[in-house]
Amino acid sequence: MATAEHVYFLGAGASVPDGYRVTAWLSCAVAAFLRHYRDVRGQRSPLEAYLASVYGLKRAEMEASADLWADYADDEQAAGRLSQSVMPDIIDLLSALDLAIVENASFGPTVDKGKRWELRGNELVRVRERAVEALVTGFSQVRSNRLGKKGGHETAEKLVSRLHADDVVVTTNWDILIEEALCAQRGSVAIDYGANLINVTTCGVPRSVAPAGPQVLKLHGSFNWLHCPHCRNLYANPNLMIAPEPVRRWPIDKECDCGAELVGVLITPTYLKTYQIPQLLEIWRKAQKALEFSPQWIFIGYSLPNDDLWIRGMLMRAFAIRRHSGALPEITVVSRGPNKDLEQRYKRLFRGANFRFFDQGVEKFVENEEVFFADERATQSRRQVP
Questions:
Q1: Reported pTM
Q2: Residue 376 near residue 315, CB atoms below 8 Å
Q3: How far is CA 239 from CA 144, 179, 215, 243, in A?
Q4: pLDDT for the residue numbered 213
Q5: Hey, how many other C-beta atoms are within 10 angstroms of the C-beta on 39?
Q6: Which of 6, 160, 288, 307 is deepest in the core (most CB within 10 A)?
Q7: Per its UniProt entry, which superkingdom is the organism in (predicted)?
Q8: CATH, domain range 6-19+152-384
Q9: pLDDT exceeds 80 at position 24
Q10: What is the mean pLDDT of the chain?
């Protein structure tokens, strides 16, 4: 494979400057979706029944969380109030469902006053799909409001403007800020996701445009991907394929060409080991290979948590290969504010690497050409050595 001079590894913090700062509290978007579901369908969703039965959540508590989400969607400064919600952390919510589905476990019967049903098997699959639908709908609402006020994602667009065609972006984020920034900069292009994805229009028609530009390797899936569990096709749309649709038309209820129902692809770290989508396995393989061959690793907004075992394992394997080759990578870590604990986590994992810690935030990093291009000049110097 072609050598990537730079690998940009993006965590949740990379999306904060553009107004997306709430990965953990996306469960408030679930509450907002459940209220919308009741208003449209005239009944509560199986997802609401699950939350009431398993977490003991009351309707009033979900309504309060829905109000918090509405405030945040309208004004990103309201993000701090989301912590008032009693909704479960979204990663915990999805991970508990994932493990129960894999193990064919049961959460027992619902607490409905009317018909009771067992929370296991296919019922949990449907509950999870409604959760994915809720997240996509909530993200789309925030995205629409942010774009309406700002006209674009300024920080993501500045970052993309610095990328070379042979650079690689590896991201843990579900959002599509990088893809939209690439499309805005380069016109109507298909994104190179590093695997055999079918790029389609919003209506689901395959696009004939060949993928171009830097690869965008999404380790945990994406808000704009749909997967067919029957024929294994994976579809992607840079314009957010599973966006909210008119009343009584639900985003996830789409069919593959083979007739099977398509499902969203939002992966939790807990579930990675058992999520056997071929394209996702290929994306992880290419992410490791890009790291193995790249002399410059730039981590933006990624806290390197100790419990993110699959990613840490991939990083350690790539780093060991570079160590054995006698060419350790130069590592840049971009964060907001000094963080000694963060620095120590990186230094312990990547012993011997040449580090640069930039703690003035993503915005300053992409705006400061002297800082941003320091590693670029180093790369050019290496190329000029006979």
A1: 0.88
A2: no
A3: 12, 9, 17, 9
A4: 77
A5: 9
A6: 160
A7: Bacteria
A8: 3.40.50.1220
A9: no
A10: 85
Instruction: Give tens-digit pLDDT for 164-213.
Output: 889 999 999 999 999 989 888 877 667 899 998 887 766 667 777 777 77
C-alpha dihedral, 384 to 329 to 310 to 366, nearest 10°:
-70
Buried b (16+ CB within 10 A) or exposed e, 77-114: eebebbeebebbebeebbebbbebbeeeeebeebeeee
Contact call for residues 93 and 131 (beta carbons, < 8 A): yes
- The amino acid occupying position 343 is E
Which token pair is 366?
Answer: 């992409």
The rounded distance, in Å, linking the Cα atoms of 265 and 277 is 9
Look up residue 193 and give its two tokens: 């996701």
Task: Write out the two tokens for 369.
Answer: 């050409």
217-243 pLDDT tens trace: 999 999 888 888 889 889 887 665 454
Query: Could you tell me whether strands 221-227 and 234-236 are parallel, antiparallel, or unpaired per DSSP bridges?
Result: antiparallel
Give the span between the Cα atoms of 89 and 26, in whole angstroms: 8
**Range(s) for CATH 3.40.50.1220 in the chain?**
6-19+152-384
| Measured distance CA(67)–CA(373) in Å, rounded | 44
pLDDT higher than 50, residue 244: no
Report the amino acid identity of residue 125. V
At what angle are helices 59-74 and 121-150 packed, to 10 degrees? 30
154: enclosing H helix or E strand: helix 154-162
168-171 β-sheet, strand order:
215-218, 168-171, 6-10, 296-300, 330-334, 354-358
Reference 302, options 45, 23, 19; nearest CA is: 23
21 burial (CB, 10 Å; 0-12 / 13-18 / 19+) is middle
